[in-house]
Write a structure and sequence with these properties.
This protein starts with a helix and ends with a helix. It has helices spanning 2-20, 24-46, 68-99, 104-109. It contains four helices and no strands. It is elongated, with a radius of gyration of 20 Å.
Length: 112
């Protein structure tokens, strides 16, 4: 239970960074922290105490297996998160080249 609370706390740290920061890079980092907390949450859901990988071999018929679905979801989320982060950073760099700042207030005030 403590690990789930720490996972939720990590998510709140990321959410705080997204809401309160005005720098685009720090906002992207906040989103990454939120993504990592969700990955950790999925891993915690799939964890089984004394569980082994779900590979059936001789003598493992009575063993307790770990649920492989959350692990597969985490791998998918990592790949999608990498692409999303790369796209957000590319947009941030384009905005910096156009406006010369990462501050979203200044970028918003320059809007025509």
């Amino acid at each position: 239970m403590t690990l789930f609370l720490l996972c939720f706390l990590l998510f709140l740290v990321g959410l705080y960074g997204v809401i309160t920061r005005r720098n685009l890079i720090k906002i992207v980092l906040g989103l990454c922290i939120m993504e990592y907390s969700l990955n950790l949450f999925f891993v915690l859901i799939g964890y089984v105490h004394d569980g082994i990988a779900p590979i059936i071999t001789k003598g493992s018929e009575r063993a307790t297996f770990v649920d492989p679905l959350p692990q597969a979801m985490v791998l998918t989320v990592i790949v999608i998160g990498l692409a999303t982060t790369a796209m957000l950073l590319a947009i941030a760099i384009r905005l910096y080249r156009k406006h010369g700042t990462f501050d979203i207030r200044e970028i918003n005030s320059l809007k025509g």
